[in-house]
Amino acid sequence: MPAQADKTSVYRWQGTDRHGAPASGESTGHSQAMIRARLRRQGITVSKIRRHTDRDTPAGKPAKAVQITLFTRQLATLIRAGIPLLQALEVIANGLEHQAMGKLVNDLQQDINAGISLASALRKRPAQFDALFCNLIEAGEQAGALDVLLERIATYKEKTETLKNKIKKAMTYPIAVLVVASGVCAILLIEVVPQFQRVFDSFDAQLPLFTLWVIAVSQALQQFGLWLLAGAGLGCAALGYRYKHCAALRQRLDRWLLKLPVLGNLLHFSAIARFARTLSTTVAAGVPLLEALHAVAGATGNILFKDAVLQLRQRVATGSQIHVAMGDVRVFPGMVIQMTAIGEESGTLDEMLNHVATYYESQVDTLVDNLTALMEPAIMVVLGVMVGGLVIAMYLPIFKLGQVI
What is the DSSP annotation of 120-148? Predict the structure, then answer.
């Protein structure tokens, strides 16, 4: 029974405000009576109220990371301007067009109006606000510097999203081109090659081996193409499931990716930049180092670095200095360790880590440009081999038409 008492629900209500104007909205509470009493204190007379169910939820996409980042920046700006938190949330909600994000901000407003802190309201929505975000907000509320912490979180999330977008940019272009090239080749094999095959059958002569191989592939695709496509889809789904639930597979794959030329350095520098940026933000916010390292571990984006940071945390917990522990785990470059040591000795650890993050983010920029420059000729070669090979295979018999006839 106590568990039932603690359960909260969302209620939709309609009524009139103290001036007699129609009013409506959503509120979170344990019962209708609690919602009515809360609204009555706000000067609202409720005429209709009912529990909000999943069927009432409007269709729409959930809030994305970029929208959470924008919300954080807007809230930081309004709080710094001296606008009270509830009024700031109302201003943001009124300017939002994204339905799910608008509902999220309205729900936060209702929770804070009910008397709970912003950090507690955010913790009720872990899908949008992770533990690091909530811990930093709580530190800001306790220190009376919510605007400062919101600014730091907004800057941190903006830089993190920028870094992620650069990695996606480096990966998306070649993958998209290869997918399109594969689709074009499949169309040629299924639709065009059979037309040539009928012409070649009329020659009644021995075809080149390359042409025979392409015709065999074409026939296989015509007969088993859908099965192959379904098998590839199931294989990708199984691999994704396995990757999500198998730490050993993730570790092997992440280790293999780090060993790749150019791309491995890109992922390595990206993980270091995320580590330094996240730790700098948490240390500057006054979060205890052990708690900060626990939050940092999940922000590196690579399971090898995550394990290394957790080992780092264990060594720091036993009394080691952080730069000494970083040398023990053997994944951080010497420059990062030296900068961390200088920061520890001078009491400017957050500033030194910020410099490290900025440096490695610039390195990621350079590597992305280099990778794009390298990919363009490589993709042209692949396209030439894939499409050009099919064309040559079909025209080889025509080139030798005189011999064949």
Answer: HHHHT-TTTS-HHHHHHHHHHHHHT-HHH
| Same domain (yes/no): 214, 262 | yes
Distance between CA 129 and CA 111 in Å, rounded? 15
Position 138 in a domain: no
Within-domain flag for 144: no
Domain edge (last residue) among 56, 77, 96 = 56
Phi, psi of 242 (to 5 degrees): -65, -40
Indicate whether 137 belongs to any domain.
no
Residues 371 and 268 in one domain: yes
What is the count of structural domains for the chain?
Answer: 3
Helix and strand element counts for the chain (H, E) = 18, 3
Residues 49, 115: one domain?
Answer: no
pLDDT digits (tens, 9 = 90+) for 176-205: 877 888 888 888 888 888 888 887 777 666
Contacts of 324 (CB under 8 A, 6+ apart): 315
Assess if residue 150 is contained within a domain: no
* Same domain (yes/no): 379, 329: yes
> Which has the closest alpha carbon to 138: 125, 152, 120?
120
- What secondary structure does DSSP assign to 35-59, as a single string? HHHHHHHTT-EEEEEEE--GGGSPP
Residues 44-86 have pLDDT tens digits of 888 888 775 544 444 445 667 788 888 888 998 998 888 988 8
pLDDT of 155 higher than 70: yes
| Structural domain of 209 | 156-405
Cα distance between residue 197 and residue 356, in whole Å: 61
* Spatial separation of the C-alpha atoms in residues 15 and 276, rounded to whole Å: 51
Please check whether residues 291 and 399 belong to one and the same domain: yes
Question: Helix axis angle, 303-317 relative to 289-297, nearest 10°?
Answer: 170
CA distance 260 to 93: 45
Cα separation, 267 vs 171, whole angstroms: 11
The yes-or-no verdict on residue 103 having pLDDT over 90 is: no
- Give rounded-to-5 percent helix, strand, coil for the chain: 75, 5, 20
